[in-house]
């Protein structure tokens, strides 16, 4: 008889460096869907300055500040803009030389790999194409889910649910 699978979900939201203490929102893992829903329902997309966001700070917080206990570890990153630095974008960037806290994609993605976390990305805009390429050059192939052109909230929720299930199934299959 197989042991019961315990699914734990957490959330790490990020904004940009100019948003100060509101830059990161971390809700550690829980196995309660109601608790997770209550926590996340209070999150809103606010703030920001330039186009790039604190992607590396958000991923770093997800990897290092959350309690990863399960053997199967999935990080589904959903984003509309890349990290700071010319390496990732050619838009208006207050930090064209990269993350002002000194984080690099190699450091953050390396920590993720060392922790046995499977990375998946949900693309909202084309602005993340270069980031996806750079990340793949560092950690190899990963699944990219298309969240673009989803005009209604119900459609977005359905795409998110499908992507989450697919990411978990893929990670479990890779483990077996």
UniProtKB/TrEMBL annotation:
Gene3D superfamilies in the record: von Willebrand factor, type A domain (3.40.50.410)
Top-level taxonomic group: Eukaryota
Signal peptide positions (record): none
The protein's name in its UniProt record: VWFA domain-containing protein
Organism field: Rhizophagus clarus
């Amino acid at each position: 008889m197989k042991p019961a699978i315990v699914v734990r979900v957490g959330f790490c939201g990020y904004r940009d460096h100019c948003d100060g203490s509101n830059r990161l929102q971390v809700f550690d893992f829980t196995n309660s869907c109601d608790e997770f829903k209550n926590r996340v329902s209070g999150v809103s997309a606010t703030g920001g300055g330039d186009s790039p966001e604190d992607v590396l700070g958000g991923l770093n917080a997800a990897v290092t500040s959350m309690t990863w206990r399960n053997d199967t570890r999935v990080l589904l990153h959903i984003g509309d803009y890349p990290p700071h630095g010319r390496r990732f974008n050619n838009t208006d960037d207050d930090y064209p030389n990269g993350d002002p806290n000194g984080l690099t994609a190699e450091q953050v993605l390396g920590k993720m790999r060392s922790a046995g976390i499977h990375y998946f990305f949900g693309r909202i805009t084309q602005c993340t194409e270069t980031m996806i390429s750079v990340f793949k050059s560092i950690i190899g192939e990963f699944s990219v889910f298309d969240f673009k052109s989803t005009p209604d909230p119900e459609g977005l929720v359905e795409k998110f649910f499908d992507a989450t299930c697919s990411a978990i199934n893929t990670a479990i299959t890779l483990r077996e």
